[in-house]
Fold these 4 entries.
Entry 1:
Amino acid sequence: MTDAPLKLFNSLTRSLEVFEPVHAGEARVYTCGPTVYNYPHIGNMRAYVFADVLGRTLTWKGLKLTHVINITDVGHLTDDADAGEDKMEKMAAEKAQSIWDIAEHYKQAYWADVRALNIRQPAQWTVATDYVPQMIEFAKGIADKHCYELESGLYFDVASVADYGRLARANTEEGEGRIEAVEGKRNAADFAIWRKTPAGETRQMEWDSPWGKGAPGWHLECSVMSGEVLGFPFDIHTGGIDHREIHHPNEIAQNQAHCCTNGLDDPKNSGARIWMHNNFLVERSGKMSKSSGEFLRLQLLIDKGYHPLAYRLMCLQAHYRSELEFSWEGLGAALTRLKRMVMAVEQLKLRHAELGSASMADLVAEPAEGWTLKQVQGDDWGKLQGALDKFDAAMADDLNTAVALTALDDVLAAKKVDPDKKAVLAAAIGAVLGLNLFNLTRADLRIRPKAASITEEEIEAALDRRKEARAAKDFAASDAIRDELSEQGVEVMDGDPLGWEWKLA
Ligand code: AMP
Ligand code: ZN
């Protein structure tokens, strides 16, 4: 039985590296969380599906995982390069609500998406405004050697640390140009770690500091929360690929200043051993922009009748480092694939019930900390061994979920194998991918848009009447019921290979 070495792509070195924990047997991971000024779009949620798959894979590999995701409720400006307004202040003004209410509302909405996508709860959600005293202490510690004060705030001098911008490849042709937004900055890339409240103004969120009343900079928040909870250096820092350009280079510079270390030839000096970034979900018509009216929220997918895990599966079909294009056709195809898996699992449940042995739920129950390779390693899997090895190797190969999914297909399609063995392996693999296959039913996956005027009970009742009519050979009545349903947007699907009895158009 193989236990493939876990290789992950480190954005800092732009290479695949074998994962070697900082603390033996552990994995400490920090994920940049959402700014809770608006609903997350499904692209944002791709970042958390990715971080969740990473976490589940670390667990699979037997590491004790400590995962932290933050909630940004202050400091993130409308422009990452230090310009514009605080996103939270801006939304609060637009809605004439308090920032605290805005933050609470959108945090809850984000958490609802997290649950719907079967993203595991991290060990800790750190909320930025809970850490302001620690942020001030951190800033005080680096201010003398690395910062300077301007009228608008305390700025970090990026020339004061070695290798600034290496993560972004900022000094090479690969790098992005920088924008000088504030007059008086020493270097274009310098950024505010403390933003003073302008004289004569009062912000909804402001704190006293040695540099006057104000609020922390966004980059400072993540340096402080990650270091406080996980300790420098920790193992892995994740975020979307946009963070590779500004936010994470700035976090790294602060971490270097704080840890009194120098260059980045040793990645540990950046504060984390490995920096990982998911690529973007893109959509051609611009519906991903939060400023467009009906933007792509997970709830929109659900309202149109798609099960949220179909979106999760859609994400898993692409490698996290590849751009993924969203389309409704693609989502529909993912839903169909998920349904095939659930149907195969339903077959296994039936076979299990026929054998009359102990409950299926007990057999496939996920261990409290999640499935690990060790838990399945000792068993004789016979013909299923190849699929298990393929799965383990795929996940170890920088989270190749697309191939891992084919290993799950292989398990579910295997012929002449013990159905209970199949079930356990499908449950374990499905759980590492976060697909929750054993708790879904075909009916859960039925397309039923929220806007439909007919209820499911009404449809089922009509179909029952139709069955009776057909049994009585009253085909005129049966056709009439079918036509009535059709007028109400219900397509009756006799003999559908996927077992859909009906669908709402
Ligand atoms: P924000 O709330 O803007 O800080 O973003 C939350 C997370 O979503 C960050 O890790 C971003 O990098 C990530 N992100 C933003 N847009 C997309 C997208 N279209 N696809 C994937 N990830 C994204
Ligand atoms: Zn961050």
Entry 2:
Amino acid sequence: MPIKFVIIFILLFSIAGCSSLKEDFTVSPDSFIVIGHRGASAYAPEHTIASYEMAAQLGADYIEIDLQMTKDGKLAAMHDQTVDRTTDRSGAVQSFTLEELQQLDAGSWFNREHPGYADPAYSRLKVPSLEDIFQHFGSSVNYYIETKSPDLYPGMEAELLRLLHEYGLIGSKKDNARVIIQSFSSKSLERIHREESDIPLIQLISYKEKAELTDHEIKKLQKYAAGIGPNYNMIDEEYVKKARENGLLVHPYTINKQNEMEEGVAWGITGAFTDFSDTLTEVISNHDQKE
Ligand code: G3P
Ligand code: CA
């Protein structure tokens, strides 16, 4: 075969290989994921498009989105039930329509509280709806979405699944880890699992004391969840080992110190939420080079 055909064949084969890797992307215990907590929230106002863009640039495999619901039933990205902390107004998210919510300044608070990272442009940032985020990023990023306060917002899960379908982000067996859904509410996750059993679900857990995982809890979790998201400061190596031996992914929140990132990785966690995606990406890269 002439050499130029051999080169073309090799090139085509490599391109096909790359694209199938992306399409077959799955959450695997063998590959660690960096989760950009509220975007790159150490460096930019949390839950804004700017914060999510920065997280992706800093190496996050997933952008993390907390969801609340507006008066007119739209899903919006915000951590708190009220707008008080992260905008220039006060009140419950559910007392605003989406249009009203998007009049608010979602960035000036950050400039005041983090002068080292302040940017005048942040004062023009808006609260994005989930649909805004999907329109902006499409399938160029992976999404790690939390149903916050689902008891307050009937229909939240149905609206989330509707949007995920509309934007073609779920439904493909090949691409089943484009979206991960997390919640502290097992009821919310079970509702999603009944509708869409292919979406990987992470049960968030907030331990008040040293974490323990009983066999009974593991059996319950295995019915609907792909893994758990415990608070990092209450877990240890034994906890991680037990979860992983039972086939559960372990994605602790929120690890911001480099020494804790290294410790968690050595214990065998399979991903972590961080405000510093750049640091965690570097920790993983150094860890991989040593292996
Ligand atoms: O979702 C994981 C972690 O983000 C949970 O804590 O309060 O930041 O949503 P919170
Ligand atoms: Ca969260």
Entry 3:
Amino acid sequence: MAQPSMQSAYPEVHSEVRKFISGRSRRMLIDGKWVEAASGKTFTTYDPATEEPLAEVPAGDKEDVDRAVRAARKALESGAWPRTTPSERGRMLWKLADLIEAHGEEFAQLETLDNGKPVAIARVADIPLVVDQFRYYAGWATKVEGETIPVSIPGQRMLCYTRREPVGVVGQIIPWNFPLLMAAWKLGVALACGNTVVLKPAEQTPLSALRLGELITEVGIPPGVVNIVTGLGETAGAAIASHPDIDKVAFTGSTEVGHLIMQAAGKSNLKRVSLELGGKSPNIIFADADLDQAAVGAANAIYFNHGQCCCAGSRLFVEQNVYDKLVPRLVEYSEKIKLGPGMDPSTDMGPLVSSEQYQRVTSFLKAGKNEGAKVVTGGDRPKQLDKGYFVAPTVFTDVKPDMKILREEIFGPVVCAIPFKDPNEVLAAGNDTEYGLAAAVWTKDIQKAHRLAEGLKAGTVWINCYNMFDAAAPFGGYKQSGFGREMGKAALELYTQIKTVWVNLGEA
Ligand code: NAI
Ligand code: MG
């Protein structure tokens, strides 16, 4: 059994977090019970700041997914859940939000230990967004309405109305960059709409979802409504994507796996699919922007969550007459970022999530240098840290349009700065990508701002800001960044299906 490394490394860790990690995390939630994997196998999750084992969790696979789907089907069609009123569902979600808030510090620490992000940021960003997500959809539970349709059948009086019914059993496969928040984005709306769920957290960061499962049972959400199966993508994830009795799969992760999910849905039962995938988002700064604000914005756009954001502003376009002014400011900002273990409250940026991610990002750094791009800051692991998956904030210049670092998603704190001449040129360059998740424009000229917002092929455009998120605002991709919108009213479309009912009221 792995010995939790945090015992010695972090004396300040919350006692509940210690207890959870050293014992309860060895079980997953199926049909309201805390169980081991059918195979009895476990896998290790690591602390990316120390590279030491953190906890053992069940290595669920196909057999466990089957059990979870049977429980979710049973809960959907009989038992307490279909008899739960929308108001009761709303109250459960609200209560869940309150409980998460009450245990906020524990969740923040779990996220930090498992993912590496600074605890100071988890406290003010991840956890409040999670709480708000459940509160927002608690409100929607009583507002999932159908319509009455004015139909025109000659000689007949007809009442025609629609019902919005749950899609059914939904599989949700989530990534490791915002472990608890991604669970919240997917669970809140699914439950508000009356679905039942099999959730698979990422193998790098399974802990906060398991802890969330404990609170889900505590608020009285009936057994089988939410099942949490921890396991690897290739086994547990693939079993969800190809399961014949799952009605919908929602996935957030790499574009590569997004392709596999759609194929599996097509080959199995044509389950509905929604995908939130990668990005290579253009962040466009015009000379007439507030350059102080824009320089900080450029840094936050790429460095937030260590660049491990699907919407990271990884292509920074700067109008050429201010390029030589703005890039040094970004560099100066980059060099002030304090790297360290996330548990240190003074840390600005923690390690990348895993050894695999560290290898990926550093191989991009090598590729950039080999292809002739210039490193103006960073470009390697920071010298002062000899342990942990740390990469220094990195700015590349002299980047050519066909370079790998400009075309592919890096998912690390690495930005390419590119000068441009005019709005048309930058619009074409910004859209020259297979992705379309987000974009930003910095300018004081409202005409230019809105014209670009219209022209950019991206699911979100930020003007004079970046990384703005709210439970009420839809989020999702154009092109190969995926389809379907999470959050806001739009997400109800993913988790309900419309039934049209005709009632013969007799002759006209
Ligand atoms: P991934 O796409 O492999 O993993 C995301 C989730 O999918 C995890 O829960 C994983 O277990 C599951 N998964 C993996 N293979 C699967 C399969 N064959 N069938 C079903 N589920 C499967 O992402 P990974 O390998 O962790 O990261 C690779 C790259 O993906 C990153 O460098 C980044 O570019 C991108 N990524 C994008 C994210 C986003 O927010 N859009 C989040 C995580 C990664
Ligand atoms: Mg993968």
Entry 4:
Amino acid sequence: MTVSDQEKQSGKTNAAKMLQRGGFATALGALFATLGSAVGLGNIWKFPSETGTSGGAAFIIVYLLATLLVGLPVMISEIAMGRSARANAIETMRKVSPSKKQPWWLIGAGGALAAFLIMAFYTEVAGWVFAYIFKSISGSLLSTDPNVTSQAFADLISNPWQALLWQWVVLVVITIIIIRGVSRGIEATAKRLIPLLFVLLLIVDIRSLTLPGAVEGLKFLFTPDFSKLTGATILAAMGLAFFKLSIGMGTMITYGSYWKDDQNIPGTTTRVMLADLLVSMLAGIAIFPAVFAFGLQADAGPSLLFITIPAVFASMPFGGVFMVLFFVLAAVAATGAMLSLIEVPVAFLNEQFNLPRATGAIITAVLLALIGSLAALSSSVLADVTVFGKNFFDLFDFLSSNILLPVGGFFITVFVGWFWGYDKFRQVLTNRGTLKNDKLVRAIFLLIKFITPLLVLVVLLNGLGVF
Ligand code: PHE
């Protein structure tokens, strides 16, 4: 075997290894895969519903600030550590830790817990989306009468068996995909489907904006009323920024470990952040003008998407076809996000307990079905069971987005700023000096060291009513 043959062969084994770990083959692939984790129900369901309940434009402004000053720095920190350690979240934190005695791996363990709580309610909402694909095929949702669409939604979530069954369908789909590994197929599909999601959102936007009375919705989205802001809504906006960018829990550490060495980290993360923001805004513009045009309640909360979107489609030509497409894409976006979520505990079980991927995935799915049932039954059998005044669905959402992710983000930035240190950070972010972005990297580091953790702490304590 010649030297070049050997090189080829070892190149192949490396490539095969990377593929096994799900390494991203190209810079564009990494961008889309990371965007695939970020874009999901957070954009099309959570962003509009929280904006609606928390006062519109003022909430969005806080959300934007949180995304820039907290979200992006945390995301950069996670990707940088993951790429430098090339391991799962817990192992990465162990590897980058300056002393083996310091328990930074707990960040990864906390992340696995957060992943469980998020999946518990996320699989339920994804279940509603899956159910809506079939309901829209049957045509039963096509009505511009909000009473009809709200009733259809209420029927779905208040029926305990339907709620549970759809959640199980989602869990089975996710488990099958994750057992197979995050194959090239999914990445390639995501590359095609995310642009399609943009196009579809644009179509719905145009229909929504041309409905009579749509202007009120735009006013709601773009005229801030700061009197609506409280410590709790500011915390919710920051929590949403964490949730949206899939940060504070190790997902981005894991994804960073699949990024190529020559990928520009500040550049790519900024693109992911901007594209994600655009999807959220397009979803807001799809929903709020229609909400006002049809005289619906902007603060309807989680049901918003499932009531307004069918009404918008019902009022346009070929609405039935577009509605099926819309929910299929929403399901695909949700699936991409869920794969990145479930990967955290699956990788954890795989590495810590040497369990094969399939066993780890099945254990995780069964646990999720158990915890998830508490969320799935929150609108029916368990509607009256509350903890801290919240049903299980809301409790899981609140605990993960508003507590675990910010706490994770706080420790991640404290670690990078004060323990990992500037030299290692600069090495990774300048691609060992090949990118001439020293000043930018210095500014990002100062943000991570001094501003981001402080902001997270203040918003968190204030939002929880500590001061
Ligand atoms: N970012 C995803 C969304 O918006 C949700 C998510 C959160 C995914 C945390 C992974 C980790 O839908």
